[in-house]
Write a structure and sequence with these properties.
The chain is of the alpha/beta class and about 140 residues long. The protein has one domain: Glutaredoxin. The chain has four helices and seven strands. The protein is globular and about 35 Å long.
């Protein structure tokens, strides 16, 4: 009886671990092979539960143009669940995007903001994340993180 109980606990543990692994959101990040802040951002995503595949790309301008982010460009470009995440976007904004599922291309923190993940110390309430519409219109505020 004791062995059966231990086996049941072990199976519950294994099944819970498998579920947790499957629950991790997969993401692909296109980045320059020589960019240190891109690596820090990828580490940040992984630390926050994302499964990240990286693709080193020497022509990031072509990637941004291909995914509609040229006018909201930053350092690296990520793809997650049909959306584009451009630049050093906080995980909280990515989770909001995936939960709300708006009809947009994706979200962006344009440029290289020093208070963004992978760039320096984040200061809550100081980082503007923009939504990038599908219709080519100007980006608008998605959230302030």
């Amino acid at each position: 009886m004791k062995i059966l109980k231990q086996l049941m606990i072990f199976l519950i543990f294994v099944l819970t671990s498998i579920s947790a692994a499957q629950a991790a959101t997969a993401m692909t990040v296109y980045k320059s092979p020589t960019c240190g802040c891109c690596e820090k951002y990828v580490d940040y995503l992984r630390e926050n539960g994302f499964t990240v595949k990286t693709e080193n790309e020497s022509n990031m301008d072509a990637i941004k143009k291909n995914y509609g982010m040229s006018h909201a460009a930053s350092c690296h470009t990520a793809l997650v669940n049909g959306y584009v995440v451009e630049g050093h976007v906080p995980v909280s904004a990515i989770r909001k995007l995936l939960k709300e599922k708006p009809a947009i291309i994706g979200i962006s923190v344009p440029g290289m903001k020093m208070n963004s993940p992978g760039m320096g110390e984040m200061k809550k309430g100081t980082l503007t994340v923009y939504a990038v519409p599908k219709d080519g219109k100007d980006p608008y505020v998605f959230s302030v993180e």
